[in-house]
Amino acid sequence: MAKKMSVEEILAAARGGPAKKPADAPPPAAEAAPPADAPAAAEAAPAASESAAPIKPVKTAGMSVADILAAAKAGKSAPRPAAAAPVAAKPAAAAAPAAEKKAPPKTDAATAAAVPKDTASILAAARKGAKPGPVSKAEAEKKGIAPPAKKKLEAPPMPAKPEFARPAATNDDPSRRTFMAAIGGALFGSSLAVGFTSLAVTQVMWVLGLARYMFPNILIEPPTKFKVGSPSNFGPGQVETKFIPEFGVWIVRYEYEGRPMIYALKSVCTHLGCTPNWLEAEQKFKCPCHGSGFYKDGINFEGPAPRPLERYAISLADDGQLEVDKSRTFNQEQGQWKDAASFVPV
Predict the structure, then answer these.
(1) Residue 311: which domain range?
(2) Domain count of the chain?
């Protein structure tokens, strides 16, 4: 029976080297001539050895990945040696399939182009030729490629303005405008200028207020004494109203308690201080505020007025004219209308 080769011997035979005998190999005496029934036993032995013999592990120390793969493929595809063949013929028969497997496959140009290259070769290939695709403006100028000329758009000419749309001529003096612009820039040109301007305006206002304080506060009022004319200018029963706007007084020639006299009535209602109106048709004084009514002699008779009108002092001046003194008043409810200074008898 022929000796069964180990995996290491098969790999050594595939590499073309001498087969190493394992340490536990049987002595040469065991390789005796096969008996007469060797062919029949050899035919049955492979099947039995394949099913019964255990698979020994492959020693891969010092082997590359390609060697391991080639060894594995050679072990699977290599045919079993014949039982009657001598041991020396096995390496040549097993080396042929291994050599066929280890031969590099033929590749065409498309397959070679798809194989990745290293970084240096890729960068060198990129620097050799021109960069594909669009180029920048700076690269185009270096290569002398002129960009396509753009068509310039020309706007149509503007129509002439009509006369009414043209600005009117002004008589402004340019020098005056320049001066005002300079003044405005000096006063309000910056935040510092605004601050100094506000400070100056405040100082001027303080000076004006101090000057006004130095002058006396005088209230100008009409004189308290004034002349209204001769007693002959007033007819019996007459009420003169022309002195109301300036002096606020009525000059009346009428009778009081049976005595004819001329007196001056104060034009202030004794209710709330409104100015009554003289109604000639009704011969009475009527207050427009709350409806108080007074007779011609000044006595109240209707409305909320609590007392009669007041009188001013009246007398004859040295020149024979009637003179009214507003600094003195006379009240009827206090009996002061009997005072000779409150009327002029006629």
Answers:
(1) 225-345
(2) 2
